[in-house]
Design the sequence.
């Protein structure tokens, strides 16, 4: 018994570890994308500044010798007002680096920090998330969750919860029978019959499994087998009115089948 509990605990722990690893991977991917976006924006800004600076012509002195680039502004002379070099200086004078940086800064700050904040929020939510119960407690919690979903009409969700429950404890006649009932609601009669058969393999006297398998077999047209199941259940609980009603309904289906069957020709 202790060995089985340790095995269940290990399965639940492995499930939690895999889930945590997947979430951490998503967080790291978001942070990496955020860093790439920041580097891209920084590169674009540098290119803008360099492109604006490239419009400045080299400074010349007497004799036409190029002496290098200086960013210090000089007052233009009246004789060179129409010179193309003066136009280049004027273009540089009109370029305001601070204004350009300010324009870039006016972008919504959330565009830059939103991915990082979202990653932080997910890490915080993960840390605050309660650790699921381990072992027998986890199995009972999943079965109870399945019961609530079934009561709310979420039969597909109930099937999923009962399946998780069975993953934690395979030989569980109650969970198998409950999942069979959810399958009946979904009109998946073959699955319902199979689950009831598995449950009865664990506990042959489980009345609900006999009753539910009878309903599944009756829906599949296996009326004789269905009647045998409901009669076996009535032997265990003779005063059960629901079983008596089920037996009556199955007998009616049998009579209808006999009446509809073609008569064999007399040779």
Sequence:
């Amino acid at each position: 018994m202790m060995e089985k509990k340790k095995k269940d605990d290990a399965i639940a722990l492995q499930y939690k570890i895999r889930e945590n690893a997947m979430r951490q991977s998503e967080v790291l991917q978001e942070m990496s994308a955020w860093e790439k976006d920041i580097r891209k924006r920084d590169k674009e800004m540098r290119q803008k500044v360099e492109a604006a600076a490239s419009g400045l012509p080299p400074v010349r002195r007497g004799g036409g010798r190029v002496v290098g680039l200086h960013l210090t502004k000089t007052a233009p002379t009246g004789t060179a007002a129409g010179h193309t070099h003066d136009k280049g200086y004027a273009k540089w004078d009109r370029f305001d680096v601070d204004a350009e940086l300010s324009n870039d800064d006016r972008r919504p700050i959330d565009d830059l920090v939103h991915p990082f904040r979202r990653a932080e929020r997910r890490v915080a939510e993960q840390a605050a998330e309660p650790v699921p119960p381990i072992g027998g407690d986890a199995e009972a919690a999943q079965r109870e969750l399945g019961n609530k979903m079934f009561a709310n009409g979420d039969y597909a969700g109930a099937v999923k919860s009962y399946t998780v429950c069975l993953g934690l404890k395979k030989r569980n006649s109650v969970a198998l029978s409950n999942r069979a009932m959810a399958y009946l609601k979904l009109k998946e009669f073959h699955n319902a019959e199979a689950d009831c058969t598995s449950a009865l393999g664990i506990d042959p006297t489980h009345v609900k499994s006999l009753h539910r398998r009878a309903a599944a077999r009756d829906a599949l047209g296996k009326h004789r087998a269905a009647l045998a199941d409901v009669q076996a259940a009535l032997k265990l609980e003779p005063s059960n009115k629901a079983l008596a009603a089920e037996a009556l309904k199955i007998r009616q289906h049998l009579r209808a089948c006999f009446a509809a069957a073609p008569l064999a020709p007399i040779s």
In short: Strands lie at 59-60, 66-68. The CA atoms of residues 22 and 143 lie 26 Å apart.
